[in-house]
Design a protein that fits this description.
- The structure is a homodimer of 418-residue chains.
- With 418 residues, chain A is an alpha+beta fold.
- Chain A has two domains: 10-114, SH3 type barrels; 122-408, Fumarylacetoacetase-like, C-terminal domain (Fumarylacetoacetate hydrolase, domain 2, Alpha-Beta Complex), CATH 3.90.850.
- Chain A has ten helices and 27 strands.
- Chain A has helices at residues 49-54, 70-73, 77-91, 98-102, 129-140, 214-220, 233-239, 262-265, 321-329, 357-360; strands at residues 26-30, 37-42, 45-48, 105-107, 112-114, 122-125, 156-158, 164-166, 171-172, 175-178, 187-190, 194-195, 198-204, 221-228, 231-232, 253-255, 260-261, 269-270, 290-291, 294-300, 307-313, 340-342, 368-369, 375-376, 384-392, 397-399, 403-408.
- In chain A, the strands form seven sheets. In chain A, strands 6, 7, 8, 13, 14, 16, 17 and 22 form an eight-stranded mixed sheet that branches. In chain A, strands 9, 20, 21, 25, 26 and 27 form a six-stranded mixed sheet that branches. In chain A, strands 4-3-2-1-5 form a five-stranded antiparallel sheet.
- In chain A, a hairpin with a 6-residue loop joins strand 1 (26-30) and strand 2 (37-42).
- In chain A, helix 6 (214-220) packs across helix 9 (321-329).
- Chain A is globular and about 70 Å long.
- Chains A and B meet through helix 5, strand 7, strand 10 and helix 7 of A and helix 5, strand 7, strand 10 and helix 7 of B.
């Protein structure tokens, strides 16, 4: 296992910091009165990457003039590796650049985080076997739980990029067309079964045009973020046949503020589970392409303490993001810098590993009890949901930052304009 | 009915031109050695809108410096109306601007057409009752043909914006994961059931954030293009459960080169068909929001004459684009300038009205015979498909330009890089 690197930023050397020198995750931040710009987290600080380039300490061809990571991501892996090496130099204990770079640090507590990328398109997959089995059982019965294609293709659908927001953005309970099995006709009302989905989001850095191999796909991924794919289960149940989820998934998808790069995750690679059927050649694993990342979710009623309701691990997935991206390209679909691929809800074999409330409460029939004594079937107004992710090295931890969202009550009249 | 306006561009006054002064459709064109720029079709000419603004003949705040219509569309309906009025002035017989504008004309035969918009996101609907019934019968049997939600919601799914191309772009037959009902396992092979879908594409001009009414949605639509949603039926059949079409629809979607504005289509508005069930209030028709547009499709084997295989009309739709856009926004989904909404395949009650080969040949079982004597179940390599659309006034016709695509053979090795 890899060991902790030592930085002159003291807080980056604490055993429990999520942002040691081994991590160097990328985000976009601002402070009061300043414009959003690219930065890298180190300990409890953010190093201003735009200012680093302006000062000539790094050279990315002007990519950091814009307040997203897209232009830099589009430069490809050699540029990614070069920047990471250079940032590591700058931030290593004893660096000659300490005095200059030290002036470009901002405490994270002073910063507001923004979308780290402009999302080109958003795709969501369905790739944890336990999740697909759980949801399939609830929607279609135990006998039809896992669709016949599921063990052969990483099933996915296109989501809505315009609805992706950064951690900290409040989410408004949506209205939608609903029809319970015992209603004789549908009605338009606020969703009563609003849910989370605990996922990882893979960000495409290098574009492609035409089918790509799993190996190539792995190399095209720039990094990963935490991702909460908010889901209105009652809207979904009525709308999803035959063309899949649509408005149920379009209210919001929240991503974490920090992109942890594939380079930082390298020591944590692990294999996908054993295959029930051999995959077709173009989807076969080409080395370990999942990551050992502990994941959890907390829920906190308004003004109250959080309760951890989910504990799982990214290695529970049946398909890696590289396999998903390769499949995504098979028909010739052009993939672009800034494409975001949700892993699908990450559930594991035990009840506490279930990555959505629909699974945890079995469609609302078995409410979970919080530490506050309250119970939850689905999310209630004012609840704050937080996703956490960590990968553990020998003596250090890599974190993703929190992925936070609070549910606001539905509008009384959704068509009234303020 | 409205009558033809007279222009000093003589070819715009021919009875059979698709581009009389009443039309004024918007596109992006280039000529050899020049950069793509915005233009408007008039008769057999294109008037250079970028040059018009540079010359001070129109003022759109610099929107035409970029080679797409997005910046202008984002300015909203008052700007759209003002430009149309001004272009009508400039091009009307006897205009004071004739000598200046006359120098900014390019014959359409000298021009290459480009994507008229940068597609923000692409959504495809499923809104012709005959199409949904035909396809549903083939995929799920006659008893389950029309899903229970179909008469209550304009069913749609998110497509892939990166795959939208302009008329004239060749389309490569895709590979995909296929499994016939009698195969015991899937295989990876070129699609053998590659198809067209005849649709109209509505382009969102004015963005929105939160639910909007059908009336508001109607006003936010900038215009319409012909749209061919190429579809690999064999990939679709295996992949589409439970989350909808994905790679089957991601090879390409071709749009026509000319955006016909809602202003030009105003005289052709018509009502949706009678409702079997009353729609919920937020989806109810707010006036006539479909259009009477004759549509047809021709197919031509390589080097041979075309045969018309489809004749239908946009008024066959059960839901208008305004209803689709309103539904799209119900959950709070932000809609952006440049969003493209495919109407769904436009089929009518008779066999010749069916807007896809899957329907025309009933899943390949009843091949169509072309005028050349050849037969077609699905598209063959080298075939050229062309969509046409016209709206007929009292003494003039409004055309959409042709929406053309030729199918290239599948790559022998889809992963080989040239």
């Amino acid at each position: 296992m890899s060991k902790r690197l030592t930085s002159w930023v003291e807080s980056a050397n604490n055993a429990d910091t999520p942002f040691p020198l081994n991590n160097l995750p990328y985000g976009v931040f601002s402070t009061p009165g300043t414009e959003p710009r690219c930065g890298v987290a180190i300990g409890d600080q953010i190093l201003d990457v735009q200012a680093l380039e302006a000062a000539g300490l790094i050279d990315a061809g002007g990519a950091f003039k814009e307040p997203t990571w897209n232009a830099f991501m589009g430069q490809g892996k050699p540029a990614w590796d070069a920047l990471r090496a250079r940032l590591t130099d700058i931030l290593t204990a004893g660096s000659d650049d300490q005095s200059k770079a030290g002036k470009l640090l901002t405490p994270q507590t002073d910063a507001t985080m923004h979308m780290p990328i402009s999302v080109a398109e958003y795709t969501d997959f369905y790739a944890s076997r336990d999740h697909a089995t759980n949801v399939g059982t609830m929607f279609r019965g135990a006998e039809n739980a896992l669709p016949p294609n599921w063990l052969h293709i990483p099933i996915g659908y296109n989501g809505r990029a315009s609805s992706v927001v950064v951690s900290g953005t409040d989410v408004r309970r949506p209205w939608g067309q609903l029809k319970s099995p015992d209603d004789d006709k549908p009605r338009f009302a606020p969703s009563q079964r609003f849910d989370i989905e605990l996922e990882m989001g893979a960000i495409v850095g290098t574009p492609s045009n035409g089918p790509i191999s799993v190996q190539e796909a792995d190399g095209n991924i720039f990094g990963y973020v935490l991702l909460n794919d908010w889901s209105a289960r009652d809207i979904q149940r009525w709308e999803y046949q035959p063309l899949g989820p649509f408005q149920a998934k379009a209210t919001a998808t929240t991503i974490g503020p920090w992109i942890v790069t594939t380079a930082a995750l390298e020591p944590f690679r692990c294999d996908t589970p054993a295959r029930e059927f051999e995959l077709l050649d173009h989807l076969k694993d080409q080395g370990p392409m999942l990551y050992n990342i502990d994941l959890s979710v907390t829920i906190a009623p308004a003004g109250k303490a959080p309760t951890t309701i989910v504990r799982t691990n990214y290695k529970e997935m049946y398909y890696s993001s590289a396999q998903q991206l390769a499949h995504h390209s098979t028909s010739g679909c052009p993939m672009r810098t800034g494409d975001l691929l949700g892993s699908g809800t990450i559930s594991g074999p035990n009840k506490e590993n279930r990555g959505s409330l629909a699974e945890l409460t079995w469609g609302g029939k078995e409410p979970v009890t919080l530490d506050t004594g309250e119970t939850r079937s689905f999310i209630e107004d004012g609840d704050t949901l937080v996703l956490h992710g960590t990968a553990k090295g020998e003596d250090y931890t890599i974190g993703f930052g929190s992925c936070v969202g609070t549910l606001l009550p539905a509008l009384k009249d959704p068509f009234a304009r303020s």
